[in-house]
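Readers of this paper often ask what the protein records in our data store actually look like. An entry from our holdings is shown next, in its original layout:
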Amino acid sequence: MAKRLLFFTLLALALGLSVELAGRHTWRLDVTAQQTNTLSPAAAQALDNLPAALEVAAYVPDFAVQRAEIERLFEVYRQHRADTRLQFIDPVARPDLARSAGVDTHGELHLRSGQRQEVVKRASAQAIDAALNRLARRGERWIVSLRGHGEAEPDASPGGLGSLVDALEARGYGVVALDPRQLDRFPDNTAVVLAAAPMDAYDEHSQQLLRAYLDTGGALFWLADQTLPSLGEAPAALGHLPGVVVDAAAARYGLKSPDNAIVDSYPAVLGTALSGHSVLPQAHALHWDDGAGWRLVGRLRNSAQSWNETGALRGDVARDPSQGEQAGPHTVGLLLQRDGGASAARVAIIASAGFAANSQIGRGANLALAVAVINWLSGNDRLAAPAAAADLELTWSAHTGAVLAIVAMALLPAAYLAIGLWIRARRRRA
C-alpha cells in the first residue's frame, strides 16, 4: 500500500513538473515543405533592424477566434524578438480610441517602432512582413524612374514595371517617373534612379545630370538593352559581347527557349537570404575593367553551359567560336561602388531588359533579386529581400510522365491482379 501511494505521489509530482516546464519553455517544429509556419528571413532581419521595440495595437472586437488567430500570427515574431508587445483594443467598446487612431475597419493592426508607424488593414503574415520592412527601412525612399528615351513604363502592360512598382511601394518606397531633359537636378530625396532599358542614348544634358547625381553619392539601377551607362572617364571599361546569352540550364527549369540566362548564386552584398534561381531573358554578356574609381563589389553570372549566340535562334543552336561566341559562365549583372565624399556612389547593371517586366517578374527569384538590388542601392542592404513565392506546381519531363503513366495504368493493375489470383489459388488449395 505504501509503495502504491509513493508511486502515485511521484507520478503526480512528475506530471506537475512537466506542466510547469511546458508552460515556461516551448518547442516548435515546422514540418511543412515550404516552411509556411516559420518566420521568414526578411521579417527576421526587419525585426533586428527596428529602431525600437515593436508595439502592435490590434483593433479587434472581443471575438475569441479572431483574437486567437492574431495571437498565433504574432507568436513567431515574439519568439524572435521578446520585447514585441501585442495589445487588443475593442473598437466597439472603445470607439474613442479607434477614432483617434484613424481606424477604418475592424481587424486593423497598427505597428509602431519608435516614431514610425505602419497600418495593416488585414492580418496576414505577408502583410505584416511588408509592414515590418517599411518600419525598418532607413533614409529617403523615393525612386525616380527615367522616361522619354524609350524606357519601360511603370504600368500594367506586359513589358511594363507595374508589378515591381507595386512590390516596392508595399515595402515603403515611392516611385515617380520623370524626364531628365526637364530637370536641372534630381530631387534631394531621391534614393535610387532607375533607367529601365532606354532604347535611345541619353542626351548630353541627361548624362551630365546622372554624372552629377553619382558624384554626390547617388545610386543608379540600369536595366541594359540597347545602351549602357557612361561611368565617367573610362567609357571603355564597360561593354558587352555581341549577341544574346543562351543557357542550356534553362531546360532544367522547364523553359523551352534557350535564350534565358539562369542565375542561381548571388553576391554577398545582396544578403544571405536571397536564394533560388532568377531568369534573365535575352540577356547580354557584360565585360568590365576597373576604371574611373569604380570597384566591382559583386557580379551575377549564369551557368557554364552557355555562350553568347550571335546567330538566329532557330533549329539546332551550337556555339561558333569563329563568330566571337565565347563559352560561359558569363557576367549578366554588375554591382559597382565608388567611394569618396560624404557617401559612396553605387551602380547596379543587369543586362536583361525584361527580367523585371510584368511578364517575367514572377519567375523564380526575379522579384526577390530586383528588391535586393534596390535595397543595396538605397543603403538598406541589411534588410532581406522577399522570399520567392513557393513553387507548388509539380512538373516533370515527358519521359518521367510516360514512366508514371505506364506504372499507374499497367504495372499497378497487373500487380493487383496477380496478387488477387495468388490469394484465390491459396484459398482453393486450403
In short: Residues 398-429 form the longest helix (32 residues). The chain has a mean pLDDT of 84. The two ends are 55 Å apart (CA to CA).
